[in-house]
């Protein structure tokens, strides 16, 4: 808490104070029998090179710091709320909403409000959200109502920027009745995503934030729970459960970049930047190498991140003052290159910068987009030799399906890897995948179900037990060992035949032998 202004009216002692419902006016009962009224002015908003100040109840001043140009904006009614982001100033008065473009301050778009009691304005690149009275309304910057998501029993009076988040395709909202739940809506239709079930966490959620870049199918949500642990989760299920991954602890405030999927936060008195949080789904061992940290003691106790625009982060300290800090611009450029599929330019930039962080981000992005050639270069640059060798082995696999499966396996998604191979009808490869991962019972189950390579599973199982100087105790393996003869020569011949079949299938398939590598390994 801090003091914005001090007034000493000549009215005697003030015995009682009451704020208006919109928080812009305050009334006080005074000792001399008068009632005093006050209005909040001098509120300030910043975005890139523009500064907007509420100079009077119904007037704003806009200043362009580049050329010192000043514009005066006047309104018919008093200003209640305002927000300045993404090239637009959105202002709500007691009756109307004004939408200004930073390219033209003279002709705003104006439309009437449903109730005129706006308590929150959130903006993203394509549209903005108003919390007006008891409802939420999503508008385009042309003033068109897009959707109005509904939550049973929703209390809009307690919604704020920490409990509601907006991106181009998704609206996220924390439930107040059960704070372990996060409701997710499609922005364009206002309907709940997927099967309508909210994202459930094990304990109460404190703050949520949606990332802003990339396609809707890759949308992520970051949230901080009551223990101050930071998690990241996919927004769209794609037929499976949402998987929340912990990427930080003791996080007090967070914000996504307005352009690329870079996350920053104050973590245990350190200013931390997660340059590619999605690495948690690709190669979690790489996560520490994609993080930048610096001392945050200058921000004092309980700071709040106000904005994250480009590579500049604005933080409000506990005394109310604003502090600006810059992050490295290079990871954001890498994000842009990958979005445009400019892999060669990304590699050249990393070689020029010579930072472990940028190489680690590029490695994870390459795995995500299945560009194994770039991944090999990036992993080699950060000394991950074992992963370089594994990537080389993936590139040498005979079919597209095998390579895709082993990329999933590289990221720790074993079930997805097995599903890809089985869907392609590569039964032996699925069995071998389970053998390599020591999932013996699953390997035997597949072999018995498809009536093939039972002897292969038994042979590898026996070799594994012999290496450990152990005897077989599993009843199923003992049962099948009685009726199956293990002949390593026959097994090796069968395996070689399977690999030949896979190579032939790959060469005569729809991709063809000449385009196989470039199509399957490039995004």
TrEMBL record:
Q: Which SUPFAM superfamilies match?
A: WD40 repeat-like
InterPro entries in alphabetical order: Beta-prop_IFT80_2nd, TPR_IFT80_172_dom, WD40_repeat_dom_sf
User: What name goes with this protein?
Assistant: Intraflagellar transport protein 80 homolog
Which organism does this record belong to?
Engystomops pustulosus (Tungara frog)
Q: Which GO terms describe its cellular component?
A: centrosome; cilium; intraciliary transport particle B
The record places domain IFT80 second beta-propeller at: 42-330
Membrane-spanning residues where?
A: none
Indicate yes or no for the key word Repeat.
yes
Q: Where is the IFT80/172/WDR35 TPR domain?
A: 359-504
Listed GO biological process terms: cilium assembly
Entry keyword annotation includes DNA-binding: no
- Keywords (A to Z) from UniProt: Repeat, WD repeat
């Amino acid at each position: 808490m801090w003091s914005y202004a001090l007034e000493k009216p000549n009215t005697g002692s003030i015995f009682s104070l009451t704020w208006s419902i919109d928080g812009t006016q305050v009334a006080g009962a005074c000792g001399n029998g008068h009632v005093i009224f006050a209005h909040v002015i001098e509120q300030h908003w910043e975005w890139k090179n523009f500064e907007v100040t509420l100079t009077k109840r119904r007037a704003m001043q806009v200043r362009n710091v580049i050329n010192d140009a000043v514009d005066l904006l006047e309104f018919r009614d008093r200003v209640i709320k305002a927000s300045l982001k993404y090239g637009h100033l959105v202002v709500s008065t007691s009756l109307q909403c004004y939408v200004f473009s930073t390219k033209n301050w003279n002709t705003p778009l104006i439309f009437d409000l449903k109730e005129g009691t706006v308590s929150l304005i959130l903006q993203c690149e394509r549209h903005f959200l108003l919390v007006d009275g008891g409802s939420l309304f999503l508008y385009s910057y042309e003033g068109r109502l897009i959707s109005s998501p509904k939550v049973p029993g929703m209390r809009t009076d307690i919604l704020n920027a920490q409990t509601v988040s907006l991106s181009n395709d998704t609206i996220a909202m924390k439930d107040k009745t059960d704070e372990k739940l996060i409701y997710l809506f499609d922005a364009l239709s206002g309907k709940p995503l997927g099967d309508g079930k909210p994202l459930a966490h094990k304990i109460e959620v404190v703050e949520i934030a949606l990332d802003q870049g990339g396609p809707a199918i890759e949308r992520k949500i970051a949230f901080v729970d009551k223990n101050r642990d930071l998690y990241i989760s996919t927004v769209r299920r794609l037929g499976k459960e949402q998987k929340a991954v912990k990427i930080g602890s003791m996080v007090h405030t967070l914000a996504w970049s307005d352009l690329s999927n870079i996350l920053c936060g104050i973590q245990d008195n350190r200013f931390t930047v997660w340059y590619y949080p999605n690495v948690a789904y690709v190669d979690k061992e790489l996560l520490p190498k994609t993080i930048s940290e610096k001392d945050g003691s200058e921000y004092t106790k309980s700071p709040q991140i106000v904005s994250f625009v480009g590579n500049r982060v604005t933080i409000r300290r506990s005394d109310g003052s604003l502090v600006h800090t810059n992050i490295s611009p290079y990871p954001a450029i890498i994000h842009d290159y990958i979005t445009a599929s400019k892999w060669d330019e990304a590699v050249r930039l990393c070689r020029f910068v010579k930072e472990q962080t940028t190489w680690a981000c590029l490695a994870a992005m390459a795995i995500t987009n299945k560009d194994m050639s770039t991944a090999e270069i990036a992993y080699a640059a950060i000394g991950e030799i074992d992963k370089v060798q594994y990537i080389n082995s993936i590139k040498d696999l005979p079919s597209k399906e095998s390579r895709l499966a082993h990329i999933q396996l590289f990221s720790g998604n074993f079930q997805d890897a097995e599903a890809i191979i089985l869907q392609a009808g590569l039964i032996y490869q699925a069995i071998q995948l389970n053998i390599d991962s020591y999932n013996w019972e699953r390997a035997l189950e597949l072999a018995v179900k498809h009536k093939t390579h039972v002897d292969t599973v038994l042979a590898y199982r026996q070799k594994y037990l012999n290496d450990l100087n152990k005897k077989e105790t599993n009843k199923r393996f003992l049962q099948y060992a009685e009726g199956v003869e293990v002949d390593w020569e026959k097994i090796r011949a069968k395996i070689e035949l399977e690999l030949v079949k896979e190579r032939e299938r790959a060469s005569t398939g729809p991709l063809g032998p000449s385009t196989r590598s470039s199509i399957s390994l490039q995004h």
